[in-house]
């Protein structure tokens, strides 16, 4: 209760900092609801209630039988989600998103078909109901937000439920809904721009148009006598079928930002928008820590190439790599890539203090990320990109000083207890270890890029040996235990790192200086190799120390 007074006294005496580190606000109620079994039961019960309302509303034959069929399909859908998508089934928010979007499509389908069959609107005839039904809404939304497996799941089950909304199973409606949904998913396997949604909508519209021609929903068309055809009506029906897909895709594009915000999902579209290098933090980095900025760009290239090679989210890796070292903005001059040529600030510090400053850039990065409201995945990767690894340079330096102190202590006849021990825990990052494939890729790319700066006259053999040693060291240190990277994927990542670094670190020929115009003889001096190590303080730690 009175901690603030104690803190104020310590600040006044210079024994505490005025800075209060930001923390992520976690709602205990929200977390309990996310994983509580009763929350899932309530969602399934609400969905069953929605199905009952849709089936029993209006006049149709045997609604009870249709409702029983719908409940059996619901039981199958729940089982399939539990078996095939256990991560989504474990989260109530994912279940709410999946079944909520499906229920919205079913409600709109029911409403449109009821309006068309009522005859209250002259421009909406009963045969047009199958042309304007939004078959691809749920598959498109879930494919973009959660992936193609969820999109196919929605396409299959929403088609089954749609076919029993009006009594006997409507085979043309079932087939059209299935094929339209599968078409939508196949055209949205990797959506990085909203224009691709429109292209997917055109594809869905063409699929609906072809199926409507096949099932006689457009026409009738008489091939023997073109004069007998009502081309105006056929053109209107064709426009409705194709426009159906385009309008559905447009609505999905408008709904995605709201759904992303509500369910805390980030699509590739949003990641691409977040990759803008004009972000205030990145602009600060270009001025205050240009070395770190360049390092982050190279790490982004490495991580993106490796992620593409193993099928991970390459855009996420690129964006997170931009911000992974943003904490170095607090004390940029203490990191090798930003040091001036005159002095090394670590010369005046004990190894433990140097390690503390180096390690603190992770917490400072999280603090800045929270201040600027960065995406949660970026914050996670900032925390995880060093795992619980060791700041080896300063640890070895501390061990050397300890041995020197012991040797001097024997001469001075000091007790060993008077010489403080070097604890390895003081030189390790606080973690956690990388939890996802993307986090592990950024972590490895960061390590490899930092170490590559220490190579003199890099060759393919040196680069390959360095990459393999660093990855083996991470495996031995158990830094990759919590992510789901396989040994085969690590081999692919190492090969991609080797290839990308080889292209970046290629050497150039040394050009001779031009001969002076006076024609006087001179000693020909060749330009030094551009890949030679940049001059820095002799006592500076290697770049990989951070």
Notes on the structure:
With 546 residues, the chain is an all-alpha fold. The protein has 2 domains: 28-265, Arp2/3 complex 21 kDa subunit ARPC3 (Orthogonal Bundle); 271-507 and 532-545, Hypothetical protein af1432 (Orthogonal Bundle), CATH 1.10.3210. Helices cover 62% and strands 0% of the residues. It contains 22 helices and no strands. The protein has helices at residues 3-12, 28-35, 37-56, 63-84, 86-90, 92-118, 129-132, 137-146, 148-163, 171-186, 194-214, 231-263, 268-274, 280-288, 290-310, 314-323, 351-371, 376-384, 392-412, 437-452, 460-476, 487-504. Helix 14 (280-288) crosses helix 15 (290-310) and helix 16 packs across helix 18. The model is unreliable at 522-535 (pLDDT under 50).
């Amino acid at each position: 209760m009175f901690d603030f007074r104690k803190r104020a006294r310590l600040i006044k005496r210079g024994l505490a900092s005025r800075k209060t580190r930001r923390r992520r606000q976690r709602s205990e109620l929200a977390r309990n609801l996310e994983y509580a079994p009763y929350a899932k039961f309530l969602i399934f019960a609400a969905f069953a209630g929605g199905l009952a309302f849709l089936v029993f509303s209006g006049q149709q034959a045997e609604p009870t039988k249709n409702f029983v069929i719908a409940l059996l399909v619901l039981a199958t859908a729940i089982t399939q989600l539990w078996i095939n998508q256990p991560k989504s089934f474990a989260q109530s928010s994912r279940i709410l998103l999946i079944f909520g979007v499906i229920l919205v499509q079913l409600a709109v389908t029911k409403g449109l078909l009821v309006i068309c069959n009522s005859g209250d609107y002259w421009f909406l005839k009963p045969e047009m109901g199958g042309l304007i039904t939004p078959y691809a809404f749920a598959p498109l939304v879930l494919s973009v937000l959660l992936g193609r497996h969820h999109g196919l799941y929605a396409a299959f089950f929403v088609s089954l439920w749609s076919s029993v909304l009006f009594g006997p199973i409507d085979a043309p409606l079932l087939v059209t809904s299935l094929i339209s949904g599968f078409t939508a998913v196949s055209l949205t396997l990797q959506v990085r721009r909203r224009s691709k949604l429109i292209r997917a909508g055109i594809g869905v519209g063409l699929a609906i148009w072809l199926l409507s021609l096949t099932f006689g929903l457009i026409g009738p068309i008489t091939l023997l006598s073109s004069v007998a055809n009502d081309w105006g009506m056929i053109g209107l029906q064709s426009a409705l079928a194709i426009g159906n897909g385009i309008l559905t895709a447009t609505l999905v594009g408008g709904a995605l930002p709201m759904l992303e915000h509500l369910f805390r999902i980030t699509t590739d579209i949003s990641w691409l928008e977040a990759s803008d290098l004009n972000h205030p933090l990145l602009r600060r980095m270009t001025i205050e820590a240009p070395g770190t900025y360049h390092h982050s760009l190279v790490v982004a290239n490495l991580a993106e190439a490796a992620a593409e090679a193993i099928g991970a989210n390459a855009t996420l890796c690129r964006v997170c790599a931009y911000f992974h070292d943003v904490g170095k903005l607090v004390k940029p001059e203490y990191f090798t890539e930003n040091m001036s040529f005159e002095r090394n600030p670590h010369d005046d510090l004990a190894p433990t203090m140097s390690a503390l400053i180096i390690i603190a850039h992770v917490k400072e990065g999280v603090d800045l990320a929270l201040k600027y409201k960065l995406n949660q995945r970026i914050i996670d990767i900032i925390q995880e990109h060093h795992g619980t690894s060791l700041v080896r340079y300063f640890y070895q330096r501390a061990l050397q000083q300890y041995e020197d102190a012991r040797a001097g202590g024997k001469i001075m006849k000091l007790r060993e207890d008077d010489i403080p021990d070097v604890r390895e825990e003081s030189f390790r990052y606080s973690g956690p270890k990388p939890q996802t494939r993307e986090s592990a890729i950024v972590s490895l790319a960061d390590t490899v890029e930092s170490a590559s700066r220490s190579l003199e006259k890099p060759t393919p053999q040196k680069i390959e040996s360095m990459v393999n040693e660093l990855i083996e060291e991470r495996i031995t240190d158990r830094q990759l235990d919590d992510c789901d990277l396989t040994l085969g994927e690590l081999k692919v990542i190492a090969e991609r790192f080797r290839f990308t670094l080889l292209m970046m670190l290629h050497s150039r020929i040394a050009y001779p200086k031009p001969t002076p115009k006076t024609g006087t003889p001179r000693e020909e001096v060749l330009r030094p190799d551009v890949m030679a190590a940049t001059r820095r303080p002799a006592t500076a730690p290697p770049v990989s120390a951070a």
